[in-house]
């Protein structure tokens, strides 16, 4: 049966590419994009679009009933750097939007939920290299606390009420179509833009700050794959570790220099350094590989090539 999909937060960094992909797979009529405001972009202009406030249960319920929605992808959230500036709103948005969709599933109005978690669920006491699926989790950011709490609620709703909720701990995501929105890993997108525009980049993290990252196409494929997996395959109902590439600012700069030899990078760490220092450097995603067959495709060099080629156009 073809799902009827609602994407909340469809105009954000992940939402934009996810909506485009889901429309290709399931058809424009089966994918309803929604966001807090109506922008003039492909998501709004080339398919069904509705304005929705992720904090308004009644609005979401109305859309679910109007379009007979089966699957909800809840992509609206405040990311790590923005959340530190507005903790109360970050907690409100990140938690209550999740409760709204979990509760809609609990009363049988929707069948399946995708909710993104993040490497931010880990903290300074977590083993930094090859961070395991199950380990110490003491996040020190508002965003990380909200994602870890969200994971607990997802698992609770699954066990107590049979809610079919699926989730991935995204690393930093890199894409040429959409700009990131307020994360600690945003530098890894901005660096490509500045390399082409100015030939130089000032990084807000230090040269050796290694973080887990992933090319957006891999992340979207992982999202589609976990949602298409049989329910029995999805054994973890909090959230799956997902690994792509890990690199430092100096390593991404070197990979850009292979294409733009004169490119230079300088370092001016700000408040985001502390956030980066609390996160893992690399992730062990063997559970996702075993349970639903995950495998990443892009490495740093193949990603750099695609980013520079496409941003030049
Ligand atoms: C952020 O930097 O806040 C996000 C994330 C890792 O979840 N990209």
TrEMBL record:
Q: Which GO terms describe its biological process?
A: L-threonine catabolic process
What SUPFAM superfamilies does this protein map onto?
Answer: NAD(P)-binding Rossmann-fold domains
One GO MF term attached to the UniProt entry: L-threonine 3-dehydrogenase activity
Q: Where is the NAD-dependent epimerase/dehydratase domain?
A: 5-233
Q: Which Pfam families has this protein been placed in? A: Epimerase (PF01370)
Q: Which family is annotated?
A: Belongs to the NAD(P)-dependent epimerase/dehydratase family.
Name used for this protein in its record: Nucleoside-diphosphate-sugar epimerase
Species this chain originates from: Flavobacterium croceum DSM 17960
Q: What is the lineage of its organism?
A: Bacteria, Pseudomonadati, Bacteroidota, Flavobacteriia, Flavobacteriales
């Amino acid at each position: 049966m073809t799902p009827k999909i609602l994407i909340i937060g469809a105009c954000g960094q992940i939402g934009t590419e996810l909506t485009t992909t889901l429309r290709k797979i399931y058809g424009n009529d089966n994918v309803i994009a929604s966001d807090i405001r109506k922008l003039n972009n492909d998501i709004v202009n080339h398919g069904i679009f509705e304005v929705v406030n992720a904090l308004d249960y009644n609005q979401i319920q109305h859309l679910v009933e109007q379009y007979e929605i089966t699957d909800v992808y809840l992509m609206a959230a405040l990311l790590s750097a923005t959340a530190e500036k507005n903790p109360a709103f970050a907690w409100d948005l990140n938690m209550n939007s999740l409760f709204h969709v979990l509760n809609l599933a609990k009363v049988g109005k929707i069948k399946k939920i995708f909710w993104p978690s993040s490497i931010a669920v880990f903290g300074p006491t977590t083993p930094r290299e090859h961070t395991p699926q199950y380990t110490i989790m003491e996040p020190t950011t508002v965003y990380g606390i909200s994602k870890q709490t969200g994971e607990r609620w997802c698992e609770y709703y699954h066990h107590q009420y049979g809610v079919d909720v699926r989730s991935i701990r995204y690393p930093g995501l890199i894409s040429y179509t959409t700009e990131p929105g307020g994360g600690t890993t945003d530098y890894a997108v901005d660096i490509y833009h500045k390399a082409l525009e100015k030939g130089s980049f000032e990084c807000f993290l230090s040269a050796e700050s290694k973080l887990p990252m992933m090319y957006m196409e891999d992340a979207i494929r992982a999202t589609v794959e976990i949602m298409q997996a049989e329910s029995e395959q999805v054994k973890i109902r909090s959230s799956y570790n997902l690994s792509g590439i890990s690199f430092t600012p100096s390593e991404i700069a070197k990979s850009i220099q292979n294409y733009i030899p004169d490119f230079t990078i300088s370092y001016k760490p700000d408040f985001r350094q502390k956030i980066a220092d609390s996160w893992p450097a690399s992730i062990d995603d063997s559970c996702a590989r075993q349970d639903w067959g995950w495998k990443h495709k892009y490495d740093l060099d193949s990603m750099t090539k695609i980013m520079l080629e496409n941003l030049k156009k």
